[in-house]
């Protein structure tokens, strides 16, 4: 199963192309190049892996949104990065969508997913792009998905540039050794910042308000890239949108040991149980939040309860989450990963950390340990990879024999969470709060929107709420918002939640942060 320690955990995906009809002809275009700073540069773009990447493809399209038609130009191509020795160190694949009748002041949003090791196909074909992947009537069939026009595309109110970090999608280092120099928090942020700067400078977009959108680790990345843009490129972004983000590693990775981490996880598990019982209500969610941050937190922080107090306490947790009381008692109320195998009682089903309301038959019912693939990450959402490869070839005209890597396990395994060396950082030390505070402080117009699904158990919304609640009001008031939606980590796979998020994003881009603040 995918480890909840790494949102959108990296797993290698060997996708193949499907066939869709080509909608327009491709024509080549030029691109910008800039120097990046990995110490080793090996390989040659004319003979190595980078030679498989074709010239940029530019195509014209029309998106129908309701009764309106939006004409836009799509560019599928690469941005080259160079080392200090002048050799090309990497090519970063990107897809840009620009409205042909764009007006001055129209925003420009750079989009990436997380992992680390995830390509942008999730947000591309799942949320913001002009085309979206339809998973069938129940929204969960990845065997024969279809591409349709996206009625909720963010292209309606912002131009888009979707970026795949090195090692994901079709972005590659010149060699394996060179690629490893991009696999770390700071290196990654700096390379993405340089790619953003390249695009901005070579497309005369400096005057456009610039935003960053990232999901999961990509939310963490958005804060780091915003800082890197400011410090290294002299570019100030107007705001970031963090979807289901990792913000504070010490809160996310402490649910199995520390009372606060467990308390911030509990409301998401309660929301999932409400969804399974078709009993979801905002009032019940608020009651679960109140219990989590009072009786639950205090009891976990104290000595083990006994007698009637213990029975009442464990019964309340069981009622909220659906986990049998005997299991809750055995773990002293710390649920951590216990919910995966036990949320459906004795029904021999497992639930997904990516949406704890989503259950499938347990492939290993005889084992008390969870050994299964994740029902969502390894289930229907895998189709995003093959679908994007087909879409890029047949509709965007970007034809390559290189495998499109949706989730790269190698990138994830080699990721550096802190400084290099024997005392390097860990994922539990990962923190974006300082970046958010600094950006709010030095850029008065900078704003943040955090969007999350209620039943996301891999990056529970309680953590984001806690972080936002503890920002200085002098920085956050009217500038930082949290919005919650039905669904899990990738809540946008639900059409209603995707529609609601798009409406809130439209308000955010227009400066109406007050209308989406709080929950």
From TrEMBL:
* Region Disordered: start-end pairs: 1-47
- Check the record and name the SUPFAM superfamilies matching this protein: alpha/beta-Hydrolases (SSF53474)
Write down what this protein is called: Carboxypeptidase
| Assigned keywords, A-Z | Carboxypeptidase, Glycoprotein, Hydrolase, Protease, Signal
Q: Which GO terms describe its biological process?
A: proteolysis
The organism of origin for this protein? Phyllobacterium zundukense
Database matches in PROSITE patterns: CARBOXYPEPT_SER_SER
For molecular function, the Gene Ontology terms on record are: serine-type carboxypeptidase activity
The record's listing under InterPro entries reads: AB_hydrolase_fold (IPR029058), Peptidase_S10 (IPR001563), Ser_caboxypep_ser_AS (IPR018202)
């Amino acid at each position: 199963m995918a480890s909840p320690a790494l949102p959108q955990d990296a797993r290698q995906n060997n996708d193949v192309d499907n066939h869709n009809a080509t909608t327009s002809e491709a024509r080549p275009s030029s691109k910008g190049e800039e120097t990046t700073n990995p110490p080793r540069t090996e390989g040659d773009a004319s003979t190595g892996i980078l030679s498989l990447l074709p010239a940029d493809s530019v195509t014209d399209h029309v998106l129908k949104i309701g009764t309106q038609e939006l004409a836009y130009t799509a560019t599928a191509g690469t941005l080259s990065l160079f080392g200090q020795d002048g050799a090309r160190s990497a090519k970063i694949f990107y897809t840009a969508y620009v409205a042909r009748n764009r007006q001055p002041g129209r925003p420009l949003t750079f989009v990436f997913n997380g992992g680390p090791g995830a390509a942008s196909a999730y947000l591309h074909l799942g949320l913001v792009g002009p085309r979206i992947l339809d998973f069938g009537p129940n929204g969960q069939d990845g065997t024969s998905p279809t591409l349709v026009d996206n009625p909720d595309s963010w292209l309606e109110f912002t131009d888009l540039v979707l970026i795949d970090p090195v090692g994901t999608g079709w972005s590659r280092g010149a060699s394996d050794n060179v690629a490893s120099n991009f696999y770390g928090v700071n290196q990654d942020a700096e390379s993405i910042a340089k790619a953003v700067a390249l695009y901005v400078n070579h497309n005369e977009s400096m005057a456009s308000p610039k935003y960053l959108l990232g999901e999961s680790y990509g939310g963490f990345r958005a804060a780091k890239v915003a800082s890197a843009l400011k410090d290294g490129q002299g570019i100030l972004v107007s705001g970031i949108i963090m979807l289901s983000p990792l913000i504070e590693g010490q809160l996310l990775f402490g649910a199995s040991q520390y009372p606060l981490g467990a308390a911030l996880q509990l409301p998401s598990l309660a929301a999932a149980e409400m969804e399974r019982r078709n009993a979801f209500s905002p009032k019940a969610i608020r009651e679960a939040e109140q219990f989590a941050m009072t009786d639950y937190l205090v009891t976990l922080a104290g000595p083990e309860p006994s007698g009637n107090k213990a029975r009442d306490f464990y019964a309340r947790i069981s009622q909220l989450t659906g986990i049998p009381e005997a299991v809750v008692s055995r773990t002293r109320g710390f649920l951590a990963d216990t919910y995966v195998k036990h949320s459906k009682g004795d029904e021999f089903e497992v639930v997904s950390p990516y949406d704890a309301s989503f259950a499938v038959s347990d492939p290993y019912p005889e084992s008390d340990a969870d050994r299964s693939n994740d029902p969502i990450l390894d289930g229907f959402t895998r189709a995003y990879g093959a679908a994007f490869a087909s879409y890029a070839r047949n509709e965007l005209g970007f034809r390559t024999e290189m495998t499109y890597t949706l989730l790269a396990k190698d990138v994830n395994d080699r990721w550096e969470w802190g400084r290099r060396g024997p005392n390097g950082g860990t994922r539990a030390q990962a923190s974006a709060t300082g970046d958010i505070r600094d950006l709010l402080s030095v850029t008065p117009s900078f704003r943040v929107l955090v969007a999350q699904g209620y039943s996301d158990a891999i990056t529970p919304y309680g953590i984001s709420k806690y972080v936002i609640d503890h920002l200085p009001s002098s920085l956050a008031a009217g500038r930082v918002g949290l919005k919650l939606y039905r669904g899990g980590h990738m809540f946008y796979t639900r059409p209603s939640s995707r529609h609601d998020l798009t409406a809130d994003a439209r308000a955010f881009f227009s400066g109406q942060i007050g209308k989406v603040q709080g929950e």
